Amino acid sequence: MDDHGSPQRRAPRRRASDVPTPPSPNGRPRRRRADGWLDRWMRTVADLDRLKDSHPMLDATIDEQVGRRIRIGDRWLTDWASCNYLGFDLDEEIIESIPAYVSRWGTHPSWSRLLGNPRPYLEIEERTTELLGSEDVLVLPTITHIHLSVIPVLVGDGTLYLDGRAHKTIYDGAMVAAGHGATVVRFRHEDPEHLEELLRANPPSSPRVIALDGVNSMTGNPPDLAAFLRIAREYDCLLYVDDAHGFGVVGERAPDEPCAYGIRGNSIFRHQGVSYDHAVLVGGFSKAYSSLLAFIALPSQLKNTLKVLAPPYLYSGPSPVASLATVLAGLHVNATRGDAIRADLARKTRRLLDALHRLGIHTPNTSGYPIIEVPLANHEEIDAVGRYLFERGQYATMAAYPLVPKDEVGFRIQVTAANTDEQIDELVDVLASLRDHFQLEQVPALAT
Ligand SMILES: Cc1ncc(COP(=O)(O)O)c(C=O)c1O
Asked: Which atom of ligand 1 is the closest one to the Cα of 284?
């Protein structure tokens, strides 16, 4: 940071071989001086490397946090990049649950799950099964672990039908599956008709898996699960859904629900009132529950098989005990206060969405869920937009090229229950002036 708190201008990039290598403690050089391999490799990732350097909101060091205010150097900003939707990361009841578990189980069991399961694992699986109303649940450290290990097992040498805007971690799971002999076919985002065309056109192979996001991590909108499930059942496929952003936020509908997110936060299948037949649901505790753990809701037979076929169950280090504690405490808080928290989250999200609408700023969010993407009309302005937000104290998630295609460049705001109404109003003021300085996408004119 310079004296005014603005991000420093970077010196021109030097080649790795230009940088003098400091001597190592044992007197030998740490790496060869002219490392042609490293220079060549750095050139292949130059776009991404430059991107990281040009955005103050990428790879930043956060020095301090108070509620949803964060300090970077000498600048305080409001955090809109957190996916801790329910504010459980700051909840005293949840924080206070940790020491008892750590004194009983230590900080980290070290066994992979196959080698030994501290009892909290079983409690989490039982309670999550009950919450979701699924046949069973298997938990692993992260959703990324699940995609990379479970998708290849499910698809085998069959065909994976992948949504065109599926999250990168699903895509990576698909690529591992391809490496094991699967065929990967992409269908247009949110387009069940296109999926059906592809299924009809391709020779039936077995097994066939359709993979997509639940609440989409960019648009904030859910898929029409009933339409995809109808296809999965008709063509005897398995529907594989990643609802990282819906779990904890949306849930089953009830006549006395305090808001349109539904109750209990038990994810998109329950919210849309569809069954788990021909489907598995993947979700995570690392967003709404602020804990490092993820789950797959699935038939018990499949769970037992995955225990020997999914490498993270066999080999990966487990989630820290503090995370097991905060998941269990989170499930308790969800049952006692979750619906009130969700009502507050829905209200705050609506406050921001209404303001965007009044300002004529377009967002693809039509769901009212707390992921609000603001696309840019000119992708080249993304650096300047990022700095504008940063300098006015707003910390958002930047979706810059080449992280996303040029026509999807923009920034994303996540509302959490721990953000205040005042913070929303300040953000709206900044967005109003941003709109006057940059080319944001305009709300499409209503057809007459
Ligand atoms: C849709 C989606 N899936 C998976 C992940 C990764 O989750 P995890 O941290 O549990 O691997 C993310 C994180 O951004 C996500 O948005």
From this structure: 10
Domains of the chain by start residue, with CATH? 37-85+370-437 (3.90.1150.10), 97-334 (3.40.640.10)
pLDDT per residue as tens digits for the range 285-306 = 999 999 999 999 999 999 999 9
Q: 285 CA to middle of ligand 1, Å? A: 10
Tokens coding 344:
């507050």
Ligand 1 contacts CB of residue 239 (under 6 A): no
Which of 143, 216, 412 should be mutated for ligand 1, with most atoms under 8 A from CB? Answer: 143
Question: How far is Cα 296 from Cα 309, in angstroms, rounded to an integer?
Answer: 14
% of the chain exceeding 70 in pLDDT: 90
User: End-to-end distance of the chain based on CA atoms, in angstroms?
Assistant: 51
Structure tokens at 447: 């057809």
Please say whether the beta carbons of 413 and 374 come within 8 A: yes
Given a contact cutoff of 8 angstroms between Cβ atoms, the answer to whether 164 and 407 are in contact is no
Closest CA to 268 of 308, 310, 212, 352: 212
Nearest CA to ligand 1 atom 13: 244
Cβ atoms 352, 312 nearer than 8 A: no
* DSSP labels, 81-106: ----TT-GGG-HHHHTTHHHHHHHH-
- String of DSSP letters for 20-77: PPPBPTTSSBSS-SS-HHHHHHHHHTHHHHHHHHH-TTSSPPP-EEETTEEEETTEEE
Question: Which conformational region is residue 226 in: left (phi greater than 0), alpha (psi within -120 to 50 degrees), or beta?
Answer: alpha
Q: Is the pLDDT at 12 greater than 50, yes or no?
A: no
- Cβ–ligand 1 distance for 242 under 6 Å, the answer yes
Q: What is the pTM of this model?
A: 0.90
pLDDT tens string 77-111: 999 999 999 999 999 999 999 999 999 999 999 99
Torsion angle in degrees (nearest 10) through CA of 218, 222, 223, 229? 140
